[in-house]
Amino acid sequence: MRQVLLVDDDEAVRTALSLLLQREGWTVVACPSVDAAEQVFARTPCDVVLSDLVMPGKGALELLVSLRRHDPRLAFVVMSGYLTDDRFKDLLQAGASDCLAKPLQTDDLVRALTRAIVLRSSVERRGEVVAEHAMVLSVPAELEQRAGVMAQVDLAAQAAGFDQRRNRILMALDEAFTNAVIHGAQGNRQLSIEIRASFSQNGGVVTVSDPGPGFDPVLAEMVADEAHRRRGLYLLRAACDDTRWLGRGNVCQMIFRQPQPEGGTSADVAVGGLLPKGRTRSTSSHKLVAIRRTGNS
């Protein structure tokens, strides 16, 4: 049974989340502070940490730094009632596996914790694949393929020098791949999902294509209200430097730029050759906001 270390100074929140996660099959160890969590973790390591961002004294960032000294690949999910785009990106840059906006939705919470563990396992499997800077994969439309896909893309990103942003790449890939399986292939395991990834010293491009009907990217401009700013394309926008929907909306292209040395200029990331065969590049790109292709986020 998977174990989560829950850290929140609000007793009511700890109780509610503990009961919720226990009903979902998790073992929960709850702590009221960072100091208490550090003591518990030293005795009983867990699969994933779920921590409130701001608490009296130390907060989630201090806890993340502390626990990562003992376990550099620790799965760590942050929750906050004040999760802005900039704060989301800052947390990912600091090494958080995922971030959730309060009030939490049960499906989002369980998926985020599970995703964090999958991300960790994908990094641990890096040694099983051959290093390369570019790749094309075609895998069955099954969620069980996520860890293997992310392991290969992670290795390519690492080989190209993407050390600081690999977590963001894997998070975005996991979101896009899951969306492609559930909403594109609609769970039909006879269909395939195509993943293309290319990384260089300037940046990287990851493209996920599914056989689904897609959606009109213009609709993304119509759902900027707070009710939709939870997961889905909001997460992609926070994790990527740019995100584009191509074809009929069933090709997700995620662009990542390498941090430039101080005083340097950021070169454009080449995207040529990364589109699936038969696809044409969209004549316009849209800043995605917070919808999924179908269903709720």
Features:
single chain, 297 residues, alpha/beta, Rossmann fold, Heat Shock Protein 90, 2 domains, five-stranded parallel sheet, five-stranded antiparallel sheet, 8 helices, 10 strands, globular, disordered C terminus
Strand order of the largest sheet: 2-1-3-4-5
**How confident is the prediction overall: mean pLDDT?**
77
Q: Please give the oligomerization state of what you see.
A: single chain
Strand proportion: 15-25%
User: Strand tally, please?
Assistant: 10
CATH superfamily of the largest domain: Histidine kinase-like ATPase, C-terminal domain
Set out the fold topology.
Blueprint: E1 3-7, H1 11-23, E2 27-31, H2 34-43, E3 48-52, H3 60-70, E4 75-80, H4 85-94, E5 98-101, H5 106-124, E6 134-140, H6 146-159, H7 166-184, E7 192-199, E8 203-209, H8 233-239, E9 242-246, E10 251-257
Parallel strand pairs: 1-2, 1-3, 3-4, 4-5
Antiparallel strand pairs: 6-7, 7-8, 8-10, 9-10
How would you explain this protein's 3D organization?
The protein has 297 residues and is α/β, with parallel strands linked by helices. The protein folds into 2 domains: 3-122, Rossmann fold; 128-257, Heat Shock Protein 90. The chain is 35% helix and 20% strand. It is built from 8 helices and 10 strands. The strands form 2 sheets. It has a 5-stranded parallel beta sheet, with helices on both faces. Strands 6-7-8-10-9 form a 5-stranded antiparallel beta sheet, covered by helices on one side. A hairpin with a 4-residue loop joins strand 9 and strand 10. Helix 5 (106-124) crosses helix 6. The longest helix is centred in the middle third of the chain and has 19 residues, at 106-124. The protein is globular. The two termini are 27 Å apart. Residues 126-132, 221-230 and 265-297 have low confidence and may be disordered.
